[in-house]
Each structure stands twice: as structure tokens, then as C-alpha cells.
Amino acid sequence: MKSIQSRLFLMLLTFIILPYFLSILFIYGHTKNDVEQHELEISHNQMEKFSEELEKYFSDMINLPYLIYRNPDLFRIFNNGFEESIYFNPTAIEKSMESFYLMRNDIRQVRFYLDNNKESITVYNAMVSARKSQPDLMKGDLINKLYNSNLKYIIEPPHQIENYNNAAIVPQSDNTVVLTIHHKIVDVLSNEFLGIVTLDIDLDTFARICNNLVQQDKESVLLIDSDDRVIYASDPSLIGTSATRDLKQQIDTTDVDIGEDITFSKLLSEPLNQWKLVKITPSKVLLNDVRQTAYTNILVGILVGILGLLMIGIIAFSITRPIKLLSKKVRTIEGGDMEIPFDCNREDEIGHLEKHMNEMMNRINLHIEREYKLEIDNRKNQFRALKSQVNPHFLFNALQSIGAVALRSNSPKVYQLLTSLSKMMRYSIQADQWVLVRNEIDYIKTYLALQMERFQNNINYSININKKILNMEIPSMILQPLVENFFKHCYEEGFYDAHLNIYGDIQGEFLHFVVENDGSSMTHSELLSLRENIYTTSYEETHAHEHIGLKNIHDRLVLNYGPGAALELDTIQGQFFLVRIIIPLNPKVANN
């Protein structure tokens, strides 16, 4: 995999095609989960809403017979029979029964059974039938169960409408499927059984409520009573049948399983106690849009992959070929041929690169020529340096001779001063060399001794150097110019009471030297100007000879230690002047 073409193919596969298909899978999974959760939430909310509507609807239908207690004519015939009351008015009774029938549009038939006379009357299509004796009515299973229990009503599963009294008002062609509610009528005071009101109601109203849950053609809804009988279903063939074992197990499962079918179940409360409203949604219907989106993205991804392969061919032809030619030129340079022609007429990135490589080769050739000349000049300078050592040695010998004359003339003080001067000159020859901190401090002490003789011992100074740093190496003559500035800007300007402090120590990963005085100082603007002159890489003509000692120290620190070293200048409340030298101890810190 060393060729650029192979690497481009790998990069395209790794960074474009593979992440694209992974993103499709991630988006599909994320969207699928979001859609599932969204649909589940919608279905749960719908189940809650329509469950409340069903409960309200059946509550209204079940409570409808209670209106009989408020109708004196109807309640009187339940209590006393038809003809045993002096207030019996057949016309008023029929109108009351018709009014009761017409109270709800979904009532198909009403039967009033009077236990006092063992007779019943039906109302169909707002028409009242003749009375009919039904002594065996109470022997029916549902009626008998209602009579012998504390139940107020009982609901009979959907069935085909019956002609209760065999009355001519009910046509034989009426095959309507109805739901029947049998309601017990009792005396409120004595709790005596008076009769039964039977309501046959259409399935349309609560079927409409149930069907509102169905949003897709393949979804289904069921209403199951407490005896697991299907009261209503989207599939008419299931109405009136018993729920299968698999359906009951699926309904009783509390967790929603995203399998082939998703089942939502809501347990209803009074008056439909223990009834269940069930919605079944195929997962294919729920995830159809997500799958279509995934298939579309996959097809787009395949197209992107094909375009990517074509892009590799184009890149290999238009880019890799010039790169290979440029690589061949570089290998030729490695062989020692420095006169390779470069194509500088191209206007793309390759041409820009060849142009800069051509300039670089010209600079390299020029640099080689300069290095050759510098090597020659360096050897000449070394020769001159060897010759220049003759004069200092002659001067040292002359100073020693003068010192011997001073001793013979009984002038030890003169001899001591000559000795100090000789040490200083010998140390100054070591400029641009590395010395121990101990030697630099000894040189400063010698310099101070000469200055004390000059100013008649009227110099206040203190030197406090940590013993741990005395054997560390630093560039020579890096502290002495700071001490010399003290005499130049304090004593020579009349600040004879000024005090010079010199101290050094290790702080963290840095070696710190501080030279400060409490005599002369400068304003804030002067301090800023001084810093600017020292820290800039070049001077203007007006500053060419100002503060050259500080500038020299700063440049030598950066040259030897890198940007981690520093020369800091500061004043203390406009009354002191302080110079701090910071030298990194760790080479890594020095390069940061």
C-alpha cells in the first residue's frame, strides 16, 4: 500500500463509503426507534381517549332506563300493572314509551317487561306493539342471572335483532346486529323487583369510536368483555365469538413487543368493568416509511461508491502522475544532481510546489556557497584570535612587573588593585564562553573591590547566592554588565546612598538571578521604551548605542537557552529598578 493510488482508494473506502453506510445504519436504527416510540405514544394516547369515549357512551346507555323512575306514567305501570290503576291512560303510556325510544338514535328496539302482569310491550321504529304475556321470560339464562344477582344491568353480546313479541311492527327482513342491555327495574323504597327494560342498540356508534383507532387498512381493533367474548371487531366474523388463547396471551402481555404484530390493550373501568379495548398494528405498516428511506439511502450509497471509484481514476490520472514526476526529480536530487529543471509554468498546486522547490534549490545552492566562504573566513578569524592573544599576555606580564615594583616600594594596596585588575582582564578574555556561577560572582566581587577603592569604600551592596547553584554553568559576563549599570546610572549621577542587591536561587524549573537598586528609577513610559528597545530584533539608528549591555544579555540568553529564557525589567513604585534573569533548567522548558 505504498502507491498514492492505493492509499486514495483506502482513504475513500475508510473515510467516505464506510462511514456513509454506517451512518445509514445508524440513522435507520435511530429513526426506527423514534418512529416506534412516537407511534407507541400516539397509540397509547388514542387508547386513553377512545376508552373514555366508550365508557361515557355505555354509561349514558346504561343509565338511560333510570329516566323511567322520573316518568310517573311508566313507573306506575311497572309498579301497579296496566289496568289496576285509576290513573291508567293508554295514550299517555304509549307516548311515554315512544318518547323513551326516541331519546337515542342508536336504539333499535325497546322491550318493557312488567313482572306484575308477566307481560311485555316492545317499541320498534317509534311504534308500540300490543301487550304479550311472557311468563317464561325470567327463565332465560341472562335474565335469570340478572334477577338472582345484585347487578343492576347485564350486557348481552351482539346478535341479530329479535322480534320479542312477534309483533307485526318488526319486519322479517330486518337482520340488524344489535347489542342488548337488560336493565333491572326495582322499587326504590322496598327494593322489590318490578320488571326489566331491554335496549337493543346499533353497533354503529361504538363501532365508530373503536374504528377511530384504526389508521391503516391492515390494523384491527377489538372490544372484548369480561367473559372474553368479542363485542366488536374490525373483522365482522369475530363479533360474538370468544377470544382465542393466543389473542388472550398477547393481550395479557404487559410489555409491548415490536414483532410481526404490535398489540395495544387498555383495561376499561365502570360501567365496562374488566372489558378490554385492543388495537393490533402490523410492524410492517409501522416501519414502512423507515424502510423505504433506508432502501433509498442504500441505493444512493451504491451510486456514491461507483462515483468514488471513478473519482479515483480521475485523481490517479490528473494528480498522481505529476506527483510521481515530482518524486522522480526529488530522487534525482538525492543522487547529487542539484541542477534539475522544474516546471514553473503550471498554475495548480503542483506547479506552485515545483516553483517553491526550484526557489528552495536556488537557496540551497546559495547557502552551500556561503557556508564554504564562511568556513574560510572562520579559519582566518581563528588565526587572528591566536595572534590577538599576544597583546593580553604582554599586558598581564607588564601588570605583574608593575606589581613587583609596588611591593618593592612598600605599596601593597597598589599591588592588590593591580592584581584585581589582572583577574578582571583575564576573565574578560573568556567572553562568549561558559563559566561556573561561582566564577561569575568572584568576578563581580573583584569589580566591586575596584569600585570601592574608586569611591572610597562608600558603596552599599549585598550578594546572596544559593550555594546549590554555585557549580552550575552559565554564559560568562551575564551579570557584570548589570552591576556596571548600577554605577553608571546611580553613583555617577549622584545617588550615593543607593543600595545594590544581587541574589540568585532556583524557583521551580528555572534559575533566577536578580540585580536591583533603590536609587535611580524611571517613569512608566521610559520603562516601556526600554523594554521595546531590548526585546526587538533590530534597533533604529537613534537607539544604536543605548542600553547595548541589556540588549546583549537578552540576545545571548535567547541564543543559548531559547524562548524559555527571559530578561525582565521592572520598577517598584517608581523608586526602585530591578532586572531579573530567568534561565530554564530543563532543555524541554527552554524550547517552549
What does this structure look like?
- There is one protein chain.
- This protein has 16 helices and 18 strands.
- It has 592 residues and is an alpha+beta fold.
- Among the domains are: 135 residues, PAS domain (Beta-Lactamase); 39 residues; 115 residues, Heat Shock Protein 90 (2-Layer Sandwich).
- Strands 1, 2, 3, 4, 5, 6 and 7 form a seven-stranded antiparallel beta sheet that branches.
- The longest helix has 60 residues.
- It is elongated and about 170 Å long.
- About 2% of the residues have low confidence.
Question: What do the pLDDT scores average to?
Answer: 79
Number of helices: 16
CATH superfamily of the domain at 71-205: PAS domain
Strand content: 15-25%
Instruction: Give the total of beta strands.
Output: 18
Task: Please identify the structural class as seen in this structure.
Answer: alpha+beta
Low-confidence stretches: 385-390, 538-545
